[in-house]
Amino acid sequence: MSYEMLIILITLIITFGAQWYINSMYKRTKKIKADSRMTGCDVARKILDKNGLKNVKVLEVSGTLTDHYDPRNKTVSLSTDIYNTSTVAAVSVAAHECGHAIQDKNNYFFLRFRNSIVPVVNLSSKLGYIAIMIGLFTSLTSFLWIGIFLEFVILLFQVVTLPVEFNASSRALKQLEELEIVSKREHRLCYKMLKAAALTYVAGVATAILQIFRLLLIARSDER
After folding, report:
1. Complete DSSP assignment for 3-62
2. Are the C-beta atoms of residues 102 and 51 closer than 8 Å to each other?
3. What is the pLDDT of residues 152-201, one digit of tens each?
Protein backbone atom coordinates (compact mmCIF):
# COMPACT_ATOMS: atom_id res chain seq x y z
CA MET A 1 0.00 0.00 0.00
CA SER A 2 1.38 3.43 -0.98
CA TYR A 3 1.79 6.25 1.55
CA GLU A 4 -0.95 8.19 -0.24
CA MET A 5 -3.47 5.35 0.02
CA LEU A 6 -2.52 4.81 3.67
CA ILE A 7 -3.17 8.48 4.45
CA ILE A 8 -6.55 8.34 2.69
CA LEU A 9 -7.47 5.20 4.67
CA ILE A 10 -6.47 6.75 8.00
CA THR A 11 -8.40 9.92 7.12
CA LEU A 12 -11.56 7.91 6.38
CA ILE A 13 -11.23 5.95 9.61
CA ILE A 14 -10.83 9.13 11.69
CA THR A 15 -13.70 10.93 9.93
CA PHE A 16 -16.24 8.11 10.07
CA GLY A 17 -15.09 7.03 13.53
CA ALA A 18 -15.66 10.50 14.99
CA GLN A 19 -19.03 10.79 13.25
CA TRP A 20 -20.11 7.38 14.52
CA TYR A 21 -19.10 8.29 18.06
CA ILE A 22 -21.03 11.56 18.20
CA ASN A 23 -24.09 10.00 16.55
CA SER A 24 -24.10 7.02 18.94
CA MET A 25 -23.68 9.28 21.98
CA TYR A 26 -26.43 11.60 20.71
CA LYS A 27 -28.82 8.67 20.15
CA ARG A 28 -28.06 7.38 23.63
CA THR A 29 -28.53 10.67 25.48
CA LYS A 30 -31.63 11.75 23.56
CA LYS A 31 -33.41 8.69 24.99
CA ILE A 32 -32.72 9.80 28.57
CA LYS A 33 -35.32 12.19 29.95
CA ALA A 34 -34.00 15.14 31.95
CA ASP A 35 -35.13 15.18 35.57
CA SER A 36 -35.89 18.89 35.35
CA ARG A 37 -38.27 18.28 32.40
CA MET A 38 -36.86 21.44 30.83
CA THR A 39 -36.71 21.48 27.04
CA GLY A 40 -33.65 22.68 25.14
CA CYS A 41 -35.46 25.97 24.57
CA ASP A 42 -36.18 26.32 28.31
CA VAL A 43 -32.56 25.61 29.21
CA ALA A 44 -31.22 28.08 26.65
CA ARG A 45 -33.57 30.81 27.80
CA LYS A 46 -32.70 30.28 31.46
CA ILE A 47 -28.93 30.35 30.87
CA LEU A 48 -29.13 33.38 28.62
CA ASP A 49 -31.35 35.36 30.99
CA LYS A 50 -29.16 34.52 34.02
CA ASN A 51 -26.14 35.85 32.12
CA GLY A 52 -27.72 39.13 31.10
CA LEU A 53 -28.38 38.02 27.54
CA LYS A 54 -32.13 38.63 27.29
CA ASN A 55 -31.51 40.26 23.90
CA VAL A 56 -30.36 36.92 22.46
CA LYS A 57 -33.20 35.07 20.73
CA VAL A 58 -33.73 31.31 20.83
CA LEU A 59 -35.05 29.95 17.52
CA GLU A 60 -36.06 26.54 16.20
CA VAL A 61 -34.40 25.31 12.99
CA SER A 62 -34.88 22.17 10.92
CA GLY A 63 -32.39 19.32 10.67
CA THR A 64 -30.46 17.16 13.11
CA LEU A 65 -27.58 18.65 15.13
CA THR A 66 -27.84 21.85 13.09
CA ASP A 67 -27.63 23.85 16.32
CA HIS A 68 -25.50 26.99 16.29
CA TYR A 69 -25.02 30.48 17.67
CA ASP A 70 -24.93 33.40 15.25
CA PRO A 71 -23.03 36.39 16.70
CA ARG A 72 -24.21 38.64 13.87
CA ASN A 73 -27.89 38.65 14.80
CA LYS A 74 -27.49 37.36 18.36
CA THR A 75 -29.53 34.17 17.99
CA VAL A 76 -29.20 30.67 19.40
CA SER A 77 -30.68 28.31 16.81
CA LEU A 78 -31.68 24.86 18.05
CA SER A 79 -32.71 21.91 15.88
CA THR A 80 -36.25 20.63 16.38
CA ASP A 81 -35.30 17.67 18.60
CA ILE A 82 -33.17 19.89 20.82
CA TYR A 83 -35.60 22.80 20.94
CA ASN A 84 -38.74 20.82 21.83
CA THR A 85 -37.60 17.85 23.92
CA SER A 86 -36.56 17.40 27.52
CA THR A 87 -33.58 15.05 27.28
CA VAL A 88 -29.95 14.98 28.35
CA ALA A 89 -28.95 15.53 24.72
CA ALA A 90 -31.22 18.58 24.40
CA VAL A 91 -29.95 20.08 27.66
CA SER A 92 -26.31 19.51 26.67
CA VAL A 93 -26.51 20.97 23.17
CA ALA A 94 -28.63 23.95 24.20
CA ALA A 95 -26.21 24.81 27.01
CA HIS A 96 -23.25 24.49 24.65
CA GLU A 97 -24.69 27.00 22.17
CA CYS A 98 -25.38 29.37 25.04
CA GLY A 99 -21.71 28.95 25.93
CA HIS A 100 -20.90 30.58 22.59
CA ALA A 101 -23.29 33.44 23.37
CA ILE A 102 -21.50 34.02 26.68
CA GLN A 103 -18.16 33.95 24.84
CA ASP A 104 -19.49 36.63 22.50
CA LYS A 105 -20.62 38.79 25.41
CA ASN A 106 -17.22 38.46 27.09
CA ASN A 107 -15.30 39.14 23.86
CA TYR A 108 -13.57 35.76 24.02
CA PHE A 109 -10.43 36.19 21.91
CA PHE A 110 -10.52 32.92 19.97
CA LEU A 111 -14.19 33.40 19.03
CA ARG A 112 -13.51 36.92 17.78
CA PHE A 113 -10.46 35.80 15.85
CA ARG A 114 -12.30 32.84 14.28
CA ASN A 115 -15.21 35.03 13.21
CA SER A 116 -12.85 37.62 11.72
CA ILE A 117 -11.16 35.12 9.39
CA VAL A 118 -14.34 33.39 8.15
CA PRO A 119 -14.46 35.37 4.83
CA VAL A 120 -10.81 34.54 4.14
CA VAL A 121 -11.37 30.88 4.98
CA ASN A 122 -14.43 30.63 2.72
CA LEU A 123 -12.46 32.13 -0.17
CA SER A 124 -9.46 29.89 0.55
CA SER A 125 -11.70 26.82 0.54
CA LYS A 126 -13.07 27.59 -2.92
CA LEU A 127 -9.81 28.74 -4.51
CA GLY A 128 -7.80 26.01 -2.80
CA TYR A 129 -9.98 23.27 -4.25
CA ILE A 130 -9.68 24.75 -7.74
CA ALA A 131 -5.89 25.17 -7.46
CA ILE A 132 -5.42 21.60 -6.20
CA MET A 133 -7.57 20.14 -8.98
CA ILE A 134 -5.63 22.10 -11.62
CA GLY A 135 -2.35 21.01 -10.08
CA LEU A 136 -3.33 17.33 -9.92
CA PHE A 137 -4.77 17.07 -13.42
CA THR A 138 -2.19 19.21 -15.24
CA SER A 139 0.92 18.36 -13.18
CA LEU A 140 1.50 22.10 -12.74
CA THR A 141 3.18 21.97 -9.36
CA SER A 142 2.89 25.72 -8.79
CA PHE A 143 -0.91 25.42 -8.59
CA LEU A 144 -0.54 22.53 -6.17
CA TRP A 145 1.65 24.63 -3.87
CA ILE A 146 -0.90 27.44 -3.98
CA GLY A 147 -3.58 24.93 -2.99
CA ILE A 148 -1.41 23.65 -0.14
CA PHE A 149 -0.90 27.18 1.17
CA LEU A 150 -4.65 27.78 1.13
CA GLU A 151 -5.17 24.46 2.94
CA PHE A 152 -2.96 25.82 5.73
CA VAL A 153 -5.35 28.78 6.04
CA ILE A 154 -8.24 26.35 6.49
CA LEU A 155 -6.19 24.36 9.01
CA LEU A 156 -5.59 27.56 11.00
CA PHE A 157 -9.35 28.09 11.20
CA GLN A 158 -9.89 24.54 12.42
CA VAL A 159 -7.14 24.82 15.03
CA VAL A 160 -8.61 28.08 16.35
CA THR A 161 -12.02 26.39 16.49
CA LEU A 162 -10.77 23.87 19.06
CA PRO A 163 -10.42 26.27 22.03
CA VAL A 164 -13.70 27.92 21.01
CA GLU A 165 -15.61 24.64 21.19
CA PHE A 166 -13.89 23.25 24.29
CA ASN A 167 -14.38 26.53 26.12
CA ALA A 168 -18.06 26.68 25.15
CA SER A 169 -18.57 23.18 26.53
CA SER A 170 -16.75 24.10 29.73
CA ARG A 171 -18.99 27.14 30.15
CA ALA A 172 -22.05 25.02 29.41
CA LEU A 173 -21.23 22.44 32.08
CA LYS A 174 -20.56 25.22 34.60
CA GLN A 175 -23.93 26.84 33.87
CA LEU A 176 -25.80 23.54 34.11
CA GLU A 177 -24.24 22.92 37.52
CA GLU A 178 -24.52 26.43 38.97
CA LEU A 179 -28.14 26.89 37.87
CA GLU A 180 -28.99 23.37 39.11
CA ILE A 181 -30.49 22.40 35.78
CA VAL A 182 -29.12 18.86 35.92
CA SER A 183 -28.40 16.29 38.62
CA LYS A 184 -24.91 14.89 39.25
CA ARG A 185 -25.78 11.80 37.19
CA GLU A 186 -27.00 13.93 34.31
CA HIS A 187 -23.97 16.21 34.58
CA ARG A 188 -21.68 13.24 33.87
CA LEU A 189 -23.79 12.29 30.84
CA CYS A 190 -23.77 15.87 29.59
CA TYR A 191 -19.98 15.86 29.88
CA LYS A 192 -19.75 12.70 27.77
CA MET A 193 -22.10 14.12 25.14
CA LEU A 194 -20.17 17.38 24.85
CA LYS A 195 -16.84 15.54 24.85
CA ALA A 196 -18.02 13.42 21.92
CA ALA A 197 -19.05 16.56 20.03
CA ALA A 198 -15.66 18.19 20.71
CA LEU A 199 -13.82 15.15 19.38
CA THR A 200 -15.38 15.73 15.94
CA TYR A 201 -13.46 19.02 15.79
CA VAL A 202 -10.26 17.27 16.85
CA ALA A 203 -10.88 14.76 14.07
CA GLY A 204 -11.34 17.64 11.64
CA VAL A 205 -7.91 19.04 12.53
CA ALA A 206 -6.31 15.62 12.23
CA THR A 207 -7.81 14.96 8.79
CA ALA A 208 -6.80 18.45 7.59
CA ILE A 209 -3.20 17.79 8.63
CA LEU A 210 -3.22 14.43 6.86
CA GLN A 211 -4.66 16.03 3.71
CA ILE A 212 -1.88 18.63 3.67
CA PHE A 213 0.74 15.94 4.25
CA ARG A 214 -0.66 13.91 1.34
CA LEU A 215 -0.54 16.94 -0.95
CA LEU A 216 3.02 17.70 0.13
CA LEU A 217 4.06 14.17 -0.83
CA ILE A 218 2.43 14.59 -4.26
CA ALA A 219 4.06 18.01 -4.79
CA ARG A 220 7.50 16.74 -3.81
CA SER A 221 7.05 13.73 -6.07
CA ASP A 222 6.07 15.90 -9.07
CA GLU A 223 9.16 18.08 -8.60
CA ARG A 224 11.54 15.16 -8.96
Report:
1. HHHHHHHHHHHHHHHHHHHHHHHHHHHTTSB-TT---HHHHHHHHHHHTT-TTSEEEEES
2. yes
3. 999 999 999 999 999 999 999 999 999 999 999 999 999 999 999 999 99
User: Letter for the amino acid at 10?
Assistant: I
**Rounded CA separation 162/167 (Å):** 8
Which of 4, 60, 97, 186 is the catalytic position? Answer: 97
Task: Count CB neighbours of 139 within 10 A.
Answer: 11
Is position 97 annotated as part of the catalytic site?
A: yes
Taking each helix axis from N to C end, the angle separating 118-138 and 109-116, rounded to the nearest 10 degrees, works out to 50
Note the pLDDT tens digit of each residue in 6-50.
888 898 899 899 889 998 999 999 999 999 999 999 999 999 999
> Residue 87 carries which DSSP code?
B
